[in-house]
Amino acid sequence: MFRRVVPLLVALAGFHAIQAAENPLLTEYQIKAAFLYNFGKSVELQGLRKNGSIFPLDLSLSTWNLGSNTFYGGIIRDISERKQTYEQLKLLANKLERSNRELQAFAYVASHDPQEPLRKVQAFGDRLKATASGILSEGSRDYLSRMLNAAKRM
Question: Could you give all domains of the chain from N- to C-terminal order, each with its CATH number?
Answer without folding.
Answer: 2-78 (3.30.450.20), 114-154 (no CATH)
